[in-house]
Amino acid sequence: MLLIVLLFLVSYLIGSIPTSVWVGKKFYGIDVREHGSGNAGATNTIRVLGLKAGLPVFIIDIIKGFLAASLAVFSNYHTVPIAYINLQLIFGFSALLGHIFPCFAGFRGGKGVATLLGVVIALTPVPALIAFVIFLVVLFIFKYVSVGSMVAAIFYPLIIFFLFPDSAISIKSASIVMALALIITHRKNIKRLIKNEEPKAKFLYKRK
User: Fold this and answer.
1) Own/partner long-range contacts of 21-25 (Cβ < 8 Å, ≥24 apart)
2) Do residues 92 and 68 lie in contact, with contact meaning Cβ atoms separated by under 8 Å?
3) I want to staple 131 with a disulfide (CB 3.0 to 4.6 A). Which of 16, 21, 156, 206 is the partner?
4) Is the CA virtual torsion 177, 32, 148, 51 positive or negative?
5) pTM over 0.70
6) Model confidence at 207: pLDDT above 50
7) Do the Cβ atoms of 119 and 69 come closer than 8 Å?
8) How many domains does the chain have?
């Protein structure tokens, strides 16, 4: 039990690595949370600092989620499929908490979309890839990162339920929770979309 608690804490610390904040301050002298949407995530980093800064942030944030979920391999449950999956979910959730409330950056983080992607890649690689492709297609068509993220989140549980019906019940339940959580964290984006004030992707790739 002590090992599980320690791994949970390690997962949180991994998630707490404020990639966008550190990159912005170290290489640009800018706290991205003070600009753009005020979000400490890859999208706002691209919006504020450009693709050169935002792409590494996006990749590292994905790795954070993947590594945290993969810590389950160090437990004593790696030979028990259901227990192992549940631990992946628990550690992934811990990393997500860390990203949203990072102890290394005053508990002011991002929405956790990239970190969540890393978690689902560790849990369900193929469904995660399909959802990511959907994100790219929607992004290409509508030019809104937020719309792509929300549509992909909505499709993820549908992919799990209809294309991979034999998935563990915990995976199915988590997929619904993840989709709802992502929609909720995009409340401000939804309001901006309704008001036609949401920045399109073409602006994200230009440094201001």
Assistant:
1) 21/102, 21/105, 23/49, 23/53, 23/56, 23/57, 24/48, 24/49, 24/53
2) yes
3) 156
4) negative
5) yes
6) no
7) yes
8) 1
The mean pLDDT of 50-58, rounded to a whole number, is: 92
Residue type, 112: G
pLDDT in tens, 95-132: 999 999 999 999 999 999 999 999 999 999 999 999 99
Query: Alpha-carbon distance 52 to 73, whole Å?
Result: 33
Residue-number span of the structural domain to which 118 is assigned: 2-204
* Amino acid, single-letter form, for residue 24: G
- For residues 192 and 198, what is the distance between their CA atoms, to the nearest angstrom? 5
Q: Which residue has the tokens 């404020």?
A: 18
Q: Would you call 148 helix, strand, or coil by DSSP?
A: helix
